[in-house]
Amino acid sequence: MKLVIGITGSTGAIYGVRMLETLKKLNVETHLIMSEWGEKCIAMETEFSPDYVKSLATNFSDEKNMASSVSSGTHRIDGMIVSPCSMKTLAAIANGYDDTLVARAAGVTIKESRKLVLMVRETPLSAIHLENMLKLARLGVVILPPVTEFYTQPKSLDDVVNHGVGKCLDQFNIDHDLYPRWGTF
Prior knowledge:
Layout: E1 2-7, H1 13-25, E2 29-34, H2 36-45, H3 50-56, E3 59-62, E4 79-85, H4 87-94, H5 101-111, E5 115-120, H6 127-138, E6 142-143, H7 157-171
């Protein structure tokens, strides 16, 4: 399994960090792209440094490197997760505006009919946000906001984050034990 992971400038940077930590433990090959504001959110919202986050990935490309391997459909991957996905990135992907490597890699993922999962982070949602999500959902993109579930009775913020990350991994049929399944508790 080979996944591209994008981390953009939206609150919830811990979702991207936990995604990479989990995928590394599961020996899934990852190619990380972080936006400038994704790096800043990591520093503002977590105890981790951008260098630590980069060390979790198998490969890393700067968001401005439009010649990166993941900017081409000939580079074979199984899919892409943008976690978290800012509304700016959502708009760029929805409108084919490949101004960053995250947007370009997502566009390539769509055009090559590979799975794309967007952990969109914003509230409240405007009609523009909803239209962009609907446009992408109609193309088969999975819109997966990290909505808190309570049926597992989360005891900590880690439980909440793990559930969101686990829901993304489920989209790729990646086995994990990040949260209890319905009917198992």
